[in-house]
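Hey, I'm writing a tutorial for new members on how sequence and structure tokens pair up, and I'd like a real worked example in the thread rather than a made-up one. If someone can provide the structure for the chain below, I'll link this post from the tutorial.
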Amino acid sequence: MKNYDNVIIFDHPLIHHKVAILRDERTSMKEFRELVEEITTLMTYESLKDGVLTTEVEVKTPLETCKQTMVADNSVVIVPILRAGLGMVNGVHVLFPSAKVGHIGMYRNEETLKPETYYCKLPEGIEEKLVLLVDPMLATGGSACDAIQLLKEKGCKHIKFMAIIGAPEGVSKVAEEHPDVNIYVSTLDRCLNENGYILPGLGDAGDRLFGTK
């Protein structure tokens, strides 16, 4: 995969450690869900080093008054791509507990492998916020591209996309179709198989999060 200015692949030993456990087929649903949230928190911290709206406040310490920078209230919105993206929401809320949550529902047509949208509910005023679009798996890139396009049509101008596992095919597709959107991936895997699943991957993230098959 070629290098893209808007793609950030994390290279952090703690994330690698947690992804290794996440992949293991023996990992329980409870532990899988906790790991997804923990990895998301680490990714959120790294991905929001820039691009967050801040404000300067005056703070009175026990010794004197000083000026301090804080994240502006109500400046971040989390938008999971249903259903697996729901597993990442709490990981962002650890750092932004008051962030509002929108939802974009998509499913993959098993014949065409293309995404189809069935639900969209977004907070009022989202077009003025920093939108964190989240989905654990970036496979073909179809769902991510369609979700980003939907957000842009709603007026969103500041979008970051986060995925835990990415395939080169999907990362390249999103990077090329939406060069103005930063893409954050904790681990870049080898490729997609003939059914559009990431290899080595971790199976179906939604099923492992919610105990379905």
